[in-house]
Amino acid sequence: xxxxxGERVNMAVQVRGGPSKHEGIGWVLINPLMKEDEGIYQCxxxxxxxxAHADGSITVIEENKSEKASL
Length: 71
Fold this sequence. Notes:
This protein is 8% helix and 51% strand. It is mostly beta strands and 71 residues long.
């Protein structure tokens, strides 16, 4: 995902394991987004049956000032 600084970013991850009553959803909200928030985010889920993980990355792009001025 590429986002601009100052935007609101929401990443959601759904994990499943075993019966449906054991489903879960985890999320992280970054508001406002800053260049320092750029990187790889990891979600880890563990239960008696095992474990799983997922990775997601956020890249913060710099807004081109000359393009912004011409708009």
